[in-house]
Specification:
Layout (H helix, E strand, L loop, with lengths): L2 E3 L6 E3 L1 E4 L16 H13 L4 E3 L4 H4 L1 H9 L7 E7 L6 H14 L5 E9 L4 H7 L1 H11 L2 E8 L3 H9 L5 E5 L10 H10 L3 E5 L12 H7 L6 H10 L6 E5 L3 H11 L11 H15 L21 H13 L4 H12 L12 H5 L6 H12 L5
Helix pairs in contact: 1-3, 1-11, 7-8, 9-12, 13-14, 13-16
């Protein structure tokens, strides 16, 4: 496994990080909850095979993910780095800030969190976050020995990101970047700015919700007969940047985990790994993808639950697969089951609550309407 230093923290972290937002479900069905045995096997395998950075958050899997990770890794605590995130919107007062941390410590079966992040800082909330003095409370927790290092996760533009980085002595940050997002979110310049400022930089959504693990015909033609998989091309795009400390991927399948561990253990998975010709290949693939992708949804699930039960991320996933990949019948079939379960677009009232919560700023009702027209009609 390749390792890098997580900025000012000084922590030596695995280049491949384990994201704990997408643990395996019972029978692969999200309505049945996390498959505890499979999740523990997955997490322990990762820890036993070179992955030492585990990224979590207060709300993942209905606030169960931290407890699952705690159970899985308690016996391996001395060789793993536990990172987790507290959303600013679930900390309305000083008591809740401490109460949430104490709950996390209990769930994760540890007396100290290695990396504690303020979750999902966004431009619209930055002034309010500063006014509420959350940083000072985090500093206090560090002095008490309850947390070791302080960071933040971010969704938004480069300008506000630059302000966030410079207005508080953070040690690390987590941002969304991938081969499709170099000019959106914090941008490639943001990665370099934060890293050059001494912050460790971890990456979320390196495969754009898993979509970049597949290549539609136009992209396959660009990649040609090269033995690299689409996922490897996407990962190498990020590995190439020296300021990136760890690339966090949600891996719910142990076979995928094994492949990724093998990939990130290659000797050439280092900064500067891409040749000029390979960079041109990725740029061409990016252009080809952007001509196909219709809805930039990463299935982060911030938009759910919908008050009417509309299965927003699932519908967008099926629509993008319908447009991008060679599974045009299966997405329509899946949408049939979504409709039967009462989660299709026809239940949408247009309240737009989901729009306000979407990190990607998607016009969700409009996108759902387009997806519905493309996917409806399958019957069996």
């Amino acid at each position: 496994m390749q390792y890098r230093i997580l900025g000012k923290t000084g922590l030596r972290v695995s280049l491949l990080g384990m994201g704990c937002m997408r643990l395996p479900f019972v029978d692969g069905d999200c309505t049945k909850g996390v498959d505890l045995d499979a999740a523990i096997e997955l997490l322990q395998f990762a820890a036993d095979n070179g992955v030492n950075y585990f990224d979590n958050a207060f709300g993942y899997h209905g606030q169960e993910s931290e407890a699952i990770v705690g159970e899985a890794l308690e016996s391996r605590r001395d060789k793993v780095i536990l990172a987790t995130k507290q959303p600013w919107w679930v900390m309305p007062d000083d008591d809740s800030i401490r109460r949430n941390l104490e709950s996390t410590l209990k769930k994760m079966r540890t007396d100290c969190i290695d990396v504690y992040m303020l979750h999902r800082v966004i431009p619209e909330a930055w002034d309010d976050i500063k006014r509420r003095g959350i940083f000072e409370k985090f500093d206090g927790f560090r002095r008490e020995g309850l947390i070791k290092h302080i960071g933040f996760s971010y969704h938004g533009n480069f300008d506000t990101f630059k302000a966030v980085v410079t207005e508080y002595p953070w040690e690390m940050c987590m941002v969304q970047q991938n081969m499709l997002d170099i000019d959106t979110e914090v941008t490639q310049a943001g990665l370099e700015f934060a890293g050059d400022a001494g912050l460790g930089v971890t990456i979320m959504e390196p495969l754009r919700g898993g979509g970049l693990a597949f290549a539609p015909p136009g992209v396959r033609e660009i990649y040609g007969e090269n033995l690299r998989s689409p996922a490897e091309w996407a990962f190498r795009h990020l590995v190439d940047t020296a300021q990136v400390s760890s690339i966090v991927s949600g891996m719910a399948d142990i076979d995928v985990l094994k492949k990724n561990i093998a990939l990130f253990s290659q000797g050439d998975m280092v900064a500067g790994c891409l040749s000029s010709d390979e960079k041109k290949t990725i740029a061409a693939a990016r252009d080809a993808y952007k001509k196909i992708v219709s809805v930039p949804c990463t299935a982060c699930n911030y938009c759910v639950p919908c008050p009417e039960g509309v299965q927003i991320p699932g519908i967008f996933t099926q629509y993008n697969e319908f447009k991008m990949f060679e599974h045009s019948q299966n997405p329509r079939r899946v949408y049939m089951f979504t409709t039967r379960a009462g989660g299709d677009f026809t239940k949408c009232t247009g309240c737009a609550r989901c729009v306000k919560k979407c990190p990607q700023l998607i016009d969700i009702p409009k996108g759902l309407a387009v997806a519905h027209e493309a996917l409806k009609g399958w019957s069996e």
